[in-house]
Amino acid sequence: MRTLRTEAVKRVELVFSLFDANGNGVIDANDFDLMTDRVLEAATASDDGARAAIRAAFRRYWTTMAAELDVNGDGVITVDEFRPFVLDPERFGPTITEFARALSALGDPDGDGLIERPLFVSLMTAIGFEEANIHALFDAFGPDAEDRITVATWAAGIEEYYAPDMAGIPGDRLVAARAV
Q1: Residues 142-154, buried b or exposed e (16+ Cβ, 10 A)?
Q2: Which tens digits make up the pLDDT trace of 3-27?
Q3: In what helix (H) or strand (E) does residue 75 lie, and over which residues does it extend?
């Protein structure tokens, strides 16, 4: 197992708190159902294909986590089970890539390759991030004059967020003001 940078540890703690969507202190399949429903509620303009892709990505995320991290097989993942392994690219890389592509595509319902700030904020709020941190992240992505970022920029940013060796990335802004 690799040593995590301080920034990555903070990201892990935040991700755990977000995935624990019902706030009961552990992550289980119900948490992913709750988060999926919240994200889909924010994505009203997205087509059925994009909605199905994010649902499948969340489902894969849960099944991968359960298979890899539920050490004792009790159907829940504790913070202790989650912390040392979630940022392991060999285990989670393909799952993260699928999730990054699905979520960023959901932010582009008109298919122009661009994500407008209001929808970005809505989707990230649905996941559970704090609004000030969401705006800081969007700004770090370098929006154009019309306050848009590219789908590719967001997808890459999501993948960077889960990289244990990364620091000073735009995603670090998501943990800046939040106590975790």
Answers
A1: ebeeeebbbbebb
A2: 556 777 778 788 899 999 999 999 9
A3: none
